Amino acid sequence: MQSSEAYWRLSDGVGNWVFAAVCLVIAVVLMRLILRERITLQGSMSYLVFLVVLGGMAVFPDATGWVAHALGFSTLANFFFCTAIAGLSILHLRALVTLSRVHLRSIALTQELAMLQERLDRVARSSAAPRRAEPGR
Question: What percent of the chain lies above the pLDDT cut of 70?
Fold first, then answer.
């Protein structure tokens, strides 16, 4: 004879609140990093929006289900994964753009540094040249 055990199911709503709590904890950690100036607010805004969207989907599953069915998704899980994948793709693209900008800026700074070093060497050579001529008189 099998004993009937009661399990918490995600459909009972507990999973929604647990996921929303996880999103909230991640947002708090992110805000702490921003306040300690470990990361910039500009770079983390899209990630915060992503967390708010996923957290909102967890807190309001009925509205999310309505949107999912209106968009043609048969299950809420498919809509959730599609939204998460799209959000992560946008975050990845944003990271690539930022990385490209940093790379181009580092190249420009390296070139500027080389030009300044060349000017400094020229000034040092031109000021050292007359001093060498004086002892030979």
Answer: 83
* 108-122 tens-digit pLDDT: 999 999 999 999 999
The candidate with the shortest Cα–Cα distance to 107, out of 97, 119, 99, 118, is 99
How far is residue 56's CA from residue 19's CA, in Å, rounded to a whole number? 10
DSSP collapsed to 3 states, the chain: CCCCCCCCCHHHCHHHHHHHHHHHHHHHHHHHHHHCCCCCHHHHHHHHHHHHHHHHHHHCHHHHHHHHHHCCCCCHHHHHHHHHHHHHHHHHHHHHHHHHHHHHHHHHHHHHHHHHHHHHHHHHHHHHHHHHHHHHC
> Per residue in 57-93, pLDDT tens?
888 888 888 899 999 998 888 998 999 999 999 999 9
User: What range defines the domain where residue 68 resides?
Assistant: 10-130
Q: How many domains does the chain have?
A: 1
